[in-house]
Every structure is written in C-alpha cells, then in structure tokens.
Design a protein that fits this description.
Blueprint lengths: L8 H5 L8 H14 L15 H10 L4 E4 L6 H7 L7 E5 L14 H10 L5 E5 L4 E5 L6 H4 L1 E3 L1 H7 L9 E3 L8 E6 L6 H5 L2 H5 L16 E7 L3 H4 L5 H6 L2 E4 L6 H11 L4 H6 E2 L2 H16 L11 H22 L4 E2 L9 H5 L6 H6 L1 H20 L3 H6 L7 H8 L4 E4 L4 H9 L4 H8 L5 H17 L3 E6 L2 E6 H6 L18
Helix pairs in contact: 12-14, 12-15, 14-15, 14-18, 18-23, 22-23
C-alpha cells in the first residue's frame, strides 16, 4: 500500500509509517543527502566551506538555530531551503487546528476525535511546503499573534466556559507544530515577547492566560538577526539567546567570482534582454567591484553592510540602460558600454548607509567615487599601470592617446550613441586601436570597442585625461588644458570626483 493512499488511522497503524520528531526527521534526511553527496541548499553560493558545514552540524545536533549576519547575506533564503530536509508528506489528523500527529495527539480536540472515531479517524497527508511558517518581527507583534489567546467568540459559539481549554485560539507557533518556524529580525521583537518564547525553546510547551496547558510542540526554530540591530533597534534578551543552541555567522561573498555567480543567478532579466544585450565579463566584474569598493569605503557605514541586492539591482539597471539605448537607436542588438555604468547609480544610492563624511559628499557623489575606484582597480588588472610605466625606461603605450588630447582634441561619448557612432568616435583616437590589438588582439570587435572605451576611463582615473559629465553623456579632454579653459558655463563642479581625479 502506498503511503499517500492511507486515509484512516487504522490503515496508518498497519503500514510501515513511523512518526518522528521534526529534528530527527531533518537529521536523518540530511544524513541521506550527505551519504549521496547531494546538496539540499542549492542556490546558496560561497558558503560551501563556512556557513553550510556549520549549518549541517547544527541540524545533525538537532539544534534550534540563529543565523547572524548583515543584510543581504542569504539568511532568509537558507531558512526557506530547510524544507528540503523534510519528508515529502506527513500524516495529520483531519479537521484539527494544529498539525496533529495521529500517533501523538496534543489538543483536547484531537484526542476527542480519536476517542470517538478510533481506527476510522480520518487523516490527510500534508506536503512539506505547508510545513514552513515565516514571521517578520516587528514592534507590534503580540503574544497572542505568536502563541495564542482566549477567543470569546469561540467560547460563545460552542457555549463553553472560559475555563475550558477549547476556547483557546492558537497563534502562529502552535499552528506550526511539526513544522519549521522562522522569525526574521529577532532583535526587533519586544523583550516581553522574546520572554514568551522561553518555554517553547526549552520545555517545548505553551502558556496562555493562566491555562494549565501542556503541549510539547514539535518545532524547528530558525531565527535571523542583523548585528547592527543589537544597538540600533533592539537586542536579543540573554536568556533567549542562551536557549538558541547554535549561532551561525553569515558573510558577504569572499571572492568576485562568487559574487558574480550570485548576481547572475538572482538578477531578473527577460528573455528579450538576454537575447538583445551582450554582457561581457568586464562589465559583470565592474558591477561586483562597485560593491567590494563600497564595503571598504570610508564614506559608508561598515556596520550596516552593503547588501548583495546592490549588485543584483545594479546589474538589472545596467542591462536596462543598454536596452533603452538599443530601443532608441533600433540597433537590434548591442553590447554593454563603460558609460552605461552611470545608469546603476540609482541602485547604489538607495542601498548604502553613509557616515558623516559620506553625507558631506552626498550619495550621488559617493556612488560616482565607487564606480571610479572599480574602474581604476580593474584597469590595473587588464592593462599596464601608468605609474609603473613612468618608472621604467620603456615608452608608454598610452602616449599617442594622451598626445592627441593634448593637441586640443576631445571626444564625446553620449549615452544614446548608435553602434556606428560609438565605433566612429572611439576609432578616431590615435593609439587606442593599437593598444587593444597589442594586448587583446583575439577579442571580438564589440569587445575591442568596449576595451577602447575602458582605456579612456582608466586613463582619466589615473589623472592622465580629464572626464566631464555632460547632461547626456561623458566628454574626455586633456587634463592640463582643461584646467585653463574652464568657463562659468562648464557643466561640472570643481570638486566633482567624476571630472578631475588629480
């Protein structure tokens, strides 16, 4: 007989089914995953040697867990993937408020049903997707929300005195019996609400308005918290923290490769965008570097963190910036450009918490600084560093480019340039084609144009060219001559880091 075809308690007793606590269930299923060398946490990137082993150890130990880390470190995603460790179906007594195990009924209601119907008691099979409850901790959460309260309407409808246990309306936690229960942002719960969780974590029972209710709830508790919250908004009361068996620290991606994989996995792009917009590795790396620079920036509050959502949103905006240009020009397909990076600024400014120095600069300027630093650092990986060339006796490959600008020439890279205009503007600069052919001769034409533009941005970041923000694009000029030809009508501020980098 197939398990799912069993409809009554009597049939269940005659089957091979054995009830287990949820912690035993997760432990035994994890053991099966490990023996098969399979990963139940698919989609979690960069934690293979850090968070995942600690998480597996906690599950093997049958622990309640708190995931502690800054925003955007996949804490909630990890919690949601825990359902992969649950059995696909478990039997519950049909018609009860909580997910009652037919072999271990807890409530008065369930016991009365079994007493009345015996082996004919109807059961249903609950899928593991129903065995997950998540609650965001907010200051207005009450004990009644989480645990329960006396329901006067139920008492009146059933004509029961308030002393009868059946007048209780159970909260989210009792209704999560035999399930995973997640509380996100635990420190935001008021201290008195946290105290109400003590018994459920240690004694595994509930207390509601003086009722002598002994209900050994079977729940896997997962909590998430941000270290910043301990001082800014609240704290986890010490006795509650003591009752949480394992504290696991999460972290941001430790390598650019991991960060790129996460961004590509999580970014929501349409089929049309993926078909029409080509995204070279250089552009993907620059998006990730913006986040890495932000995490080390003196302008940004490191305690607040820089979420991986920044790079995901930035990459989506980067693609959309190129898509808009493509639609306006009717080019059919296009490749990302360095100048498209300024389309990610709205994604950056809304996801960084500035310290005092950053507030003085302003979020827009800080975003420009981060983009500039990302370009500069990546330029040093791909091309000879101008400072090192000055110390050597060999001729600088950048000299023909710089000399052309010193003669009073300039180049405008407008945001909506067509593919043909973009190529024409870049190839007019002597030396640009030569330097790309010297180091990246085998690259496709589209990538060579991108690298040519990248060289101009790299030289401006090394103060060998000046870069001006126009209303609809970027203008490159000679560094020294631009200092002497500035007029009151020039569209920039003297201290704009996107204009002069000296």
């Amino acid at each position: 007989m197939e398990i799912n075809s069993i409809k009554t308690l009597g049939e269940l007793k005659n089957s091979s089914y054995k009830s287990r606590s949820i912690k035993d269930e997760m432990r035994e299923n994890l053991i099966c995953f490990l023996r098969k060398k399979e990963n139940p946490f698919q989609g979690i990137i960069g934690y293979d040697d850090t968070v995942i082993p600690e998480l597996q150890t906690a599950i093997l130990s049958r622990h309640n867990i708190i995931l502690l880390g800054l925003r955007g470190q996949a804490k909630t995603k990890i919690a949601r993937l825990m359902i992969n460790l649950l059995d696909e179906f478990v039997p519950v007594i049909n018609g009860t408020e909580i997910n009652e195990d037919p072999f271990k009924p807890l409530s008065v209601e369930a016991k009365q049903i079994i007493e009345k119907d015996g082996d004919s008691t109807a059961i249903r099979w609950m899928h593991r997707s129903e065995r997950y409850t998540e609650k965001l901790a907010t200051p207005d959460v009450s004990v009644a929300d989480l645990i329960g309260d006396v329901d006067p309407i139920k008492a009146a409808a059933l004509r029961l005195p308030y002393s009868d246990e059946r007048v209780i309306h159970f909260g989210l936690i009792p209704r999560s019996h035999r399930s995973i229960f997640v509380i996100n942002e635990l420190p935001d719960l008021q201290a008195r609400i946290q105290v109400a969780l003590f018994n459920m974590l240690e004694e595994r029972d509930i207390q509601i308005r003086g009722f002598k209710v002994r209900m050994p709830l079977d729940i896997e508790f997962i909590f998430t918290a941000n270290p910043e919250d301990y001082t800014n908004r609240g704290s986890i009361v010490t006795p509650l923290k003591d009752r949480i068996d394992s504290q696991i620290l999460t972290h941001y991606p430790k390598s650019q490769e991991y960060s790129r994989t996460i961004t590509e996995q999580e970014a929501k792009l349409s089929d049309e965008q993926m078909d029409k917009i080509e995204s070279p590795d250089l552009m993907k790396d620059l998006v990730e570097l913006v986040a890495f620079e932000a995490r080390d920036s003196e302008y940004i509050d490191s305690k607040s963190g820089v979420s991986t959502r920044l790079t995901i949103s930035a990459y989506e905006n980067l693609i959309s910036t190129a898509e808009r240009r493509n639609l306006l020009n009717g080019d059919g397909k296009t490749t990302l450009r360095i100048s498209d990076l300024f389309g990610v600024i709205p994604s950056v400014t809304g996801k960084i918490e500035l310290v005092y120095e950053g507030e003085q600069e302003g979020p827009y300027k800080v975003a420009q600084i981060l983009i500039g630093k990302a370009i500069k650092n990546q330029f040093r990986k791909l091309f000879p560093t101008p400072e090192n060339l000055k110390k050597s006796e060999s001729a600088s490959p950048y000299q023909p480019i710089i000399s052309w600008f010193q003669k009073g020439n300039k180049i405008d890279l407008l945001s909506n340039l067509s593919k043909a205009e973009y190529e024409k503007n870049l190839t007019q600069v002597p030396g640009l084609v030569d330097i790309i052919n010297k180091y990246y001769k085998k690259e496709r034409t589209e990538n060579k144009l991108l690298l040519m533009e990248f060289v101009l941005f790299g030289l401006s970041e090394h103060s060998l060219l000046s870069r001006f923000r126009l209303e609809n694009g970027i203008q490159f000029k000679d560094m020294l001559s631009s200092m002497f030809t500035m007029s009151p009508d020039d569209n920039f501020e003297e201290d704009d880091p996107d204009i002069l980098n000296s």
